[in-house]
Amino acid sequence: MNIQELLKTKNVMKVSPDETLGSVFPRLSSSHDVAFVFDEKDTYLGVINLYHCMVKKQYPSTTKVRHALAHAPKLNINDDISRAARLMRESKMYYLPVFSAGKYVGVLTAKRMLGEALKQGLFDLPVTKILQKARALVIVSEKASVGEALNKYKEKKVSKLMVTDQEGKLAGILSYYDLGDLVMTPKERQSSGSRTGEKLKSSEAPVKPYVNTKVYTISGTARIEDAARIMTDHEVGSVVVVWPERTPRGIITMRDLLDLVAGTGKPLLFQYGISGISDTSREYVQRFVTGITNYVRTISPLKNIMVRVRETKGGQRYEASVELKERGKSTVIKKEGINLPKLLHDMKTAVKNAVGKK
Asked: pLDDT tens digits, residue range 302-319?
């Protein structure tokens, strides 16, 4: 699918180059949000992004927007979602400008793209598929200081920390963005006459007041689509995997989901044939085909898929087969029945089981 069908043209956050970062940041809800900068002639200039301004550059809040511009990757109206996902992942910006013939026409958001991926069944995978590849969680105690947290961000090169209580249970998440006020506040020069302990240094302050305790969680037996629905429905950037009793075991982030969508751009030779199928039945088959190909692209090195569906006896019976080819080896799955939706559902399950064993 190309991005034209997912384009957002209304309620796009636009700011002036003469505003300050301090006035723009409160309007952004996460470190990956983007404000689009336009001049008085409504010409697109660039973007303001929390990650770029706070993590990479550490601009003070008084900086003018025009001096802190980031140049987000530009999408073409005819690009597909796999390329868009790859650019979002690489830039750490989940809102990208879209152009047609060199003219700005709108924005593509990660939320809209992931919503479409959900419809296509792309995230119908166990959460362990992501956790197997994930780095170890970076955890701090809720009694840790801001200085300790900042050192963790720098040492581990992460933007989120899991915060646990004294029993090791999940207490919340602390993102670099949550410490924005402290990170961006200019350090005051202390006079030689200042009394020791009169004012607590920001680096010595406890992290607990800054921890986001409203955290969405799923169990280790959940599926990635469960996490994706939470992220899109509640507009959050991550879901924590816990078991048992709120013990953090992993985290699924927007970046993980973008990795899966970006993977749909892998080369894959796909062929299918339909014989004697009515228009209604053809729609069922096409949805089946889309779901299977997207699933296989994300988790398997398969190079070729061939699907055949045939309607016999005037629509009284259906035959379906899927051939999976990989490195000279071939696996053929065949099924038949009188109920096409059920037949394709059973076939989809059989294909997933076969691919999962490869």
From this structure: 657 788 888 887 668 899
Per-residue model confidence as pLDDT tens digits over 131-172: 867 677 899 999 999 999 989 988 888 888 999 999 999 999
Q: What is the DSSP letter of 53?
A: I
> How far is Cα 159 from Cα 176, in angstroms, rounded to an integer?
5
- Is 331 found in the same domain as 251? no
User: How far is residue 318's CA from residue 316's CA, in Å, rounded to a whole number?
Assistant: 7
| DSSP letter for each residue of 277-342 | --HHHHHHHHHHHHHHHHHHHHH----EEEEEEEEEGGGTEEEEEEEEEETTEEEEEEEEES-HHH
139-141 vs 160-164, strand pairing mode: parallel
191 found inside a domain: no
Q: Which structural domain, as residue segments, surrounds residue 283?
A: 266-356
Structural domain ending residue among the three candidates 108, 139, 163: 108
Do 296 and 340 sit in the same domain of this protein?
yes
User: What CATH number corresponds to the domain at position 95?
Assistant: 3.10.580.10
Phi and psi for 202 in degrees, rounded to 5?
-60, -35
Say whether both 271 and 257 belong to one domain. Answer: no
Asked if the peptide bond before residue 244 counts as cis, ω within 30 degrees of 0, the response is yes
